[in-house]
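May I ask for whichever protein you like with its backbone structure tokens?
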Amino acid sequence: MPAEVDYVSWTKRVAYFANRPDLASPKRGVWLSGQMSPLAKKNFQALGWVVNEKTKLLTDSTDAH
């Protein structure tokens, strides 16, 4: 799941996203242009997510508004 964000904190909304049953998979990952808080990273990894921080994301400039 790519996300162009500077920083992700562990909030109720983020916890809901990390636990979404429709995203359940033996292999799931998140690619961020920024980084996660230590708590968010720890919790995502505990839920089986592979966390990739400070990643250059490919974006489609035609989608920009």
